[in-house]
Design goal:
single chain; mainly alpha; 2 domains; 25 helices
Amino acid sequence: MKPSTRNPNFLEAFFPIIVLITLLALNVYIFEGDATGGANQVALLFGAVIASVMGMRLGFSWKSIQEGMIKSIRSSLGAILILLIIGALSGTWMISGVVPTMIYYGLDLLNPQFFLLATCLICAVVALATGSSWSTIGTVGLALLGIGSVMGIEDGMIVGAIISGAYFGDKMSPLSDTTNLAPAMAGTDLITHIRYMMYTTFPSLIITLLIFLFLGLSMDSKVDLAGIEVMQNTLSKSFYISPVLFLVPALVITLIIMKWDALPALFVGTIAGGVAAIIAQPTLVNQLSGITDNYLKSSYVTFFNSIASSINIETGNPSVNDLLSTGGMSGMLNTIWLVICSMCFGGAMEVTGMLKRITSSFISSIESAGSLIAKTAATCIFFNATTSDQYLAIVVPGRMFSSEFKNRGLKPENLSRTLEDSGTVTSPLIPWNTCGAYHAGVLGVATGTYWMFCFFNLISPIMTVLYGFLNIRIRKYSTEEEKTE
């Protein structure tokens, strides 16, 4: 810090966050579910402006603040590339039939005798395949809610099982935007993040499934499966469905096991998905391109369009249509916009010392890794409740605590796991959060009716804090690694 600058006091440091929270709350009120389509990004830029003005009042030059923003954005470029390739992969995996095949066989898991357990598993499989809890809940989840209602099961229990499974799949899917955002904020890579989340996520899921099994054993198992059969029939008519298509994700998994970096592994998966589409789905390829007299040209057009832009597959079933839509690379631009704007805000807050001042107030009494993880988790939940947006509940705490985790010798995957275990999964539990409002609106079941049955979402933050205090799977830098950091 230059001699002409001074350290901010707590009010000065927290003022940009107060402005940001106010703007975000206003955005949710004015724009409702569309707040994440641009309004929140602009709010982050306004927050960055306020942080910059406050920084200049503290003696920092605009040039140094701008350099801090650029440095912050530069650190996220790897994640931005991953987001783009994830968009491309989701497109080719959709048209190839890989994702529809996963959904088709996921629906086969439905056993009427264990409806709640099966519902959770089905939503987990679908969300894992699509990377989206919202589309899973709004399509398959809605169908399962109708089936469960016929059985006479409480709506709150059904929705709890739907959301629990959907958020497990969303959280563990490399196609999910939050799963890419968390490691970007923490400073680790996607594959390391997913591997490290398994330690807390799978125990949380197992406990959740056992609870749903216990709840479901005493329930009447008679149910009409017509809705699920219709969905499966629609998928089988629109795609070539075969376990052979699982070779495409198996290839990516093999490359990851062989310790390939995420970017080349996902790129190979994207190409493999395109090749599979050309071989297995010729009718769909022609339908999407609108070209029927030249299959080579048709394949080329569909392949590039699926990578670059949105694809909407018409099946005759509106629910299935919604599930089979994908945005390609262009569908990731909104998230990339959010990342860049948040890095501007974080960079301005960091270079002016405001983030350090805030975090020092939060962590002054922390003596253990468990305490740091617990306060990070609590901060994520706080931002979910105050900013009404799960992205901000990942971005702001991620920027606030990244330096402190590093200073205490904790690897960034500790932080990225905590961000997802507490930021991503608690968003649907809050009625005024965009996720809570969306799910309640789509399913027609109030947040207050279902939140206590979202066992996975409730257990996950407890699990990550418990691991912290018990020092279970807490990765630390070795002496040699600390010297190179």
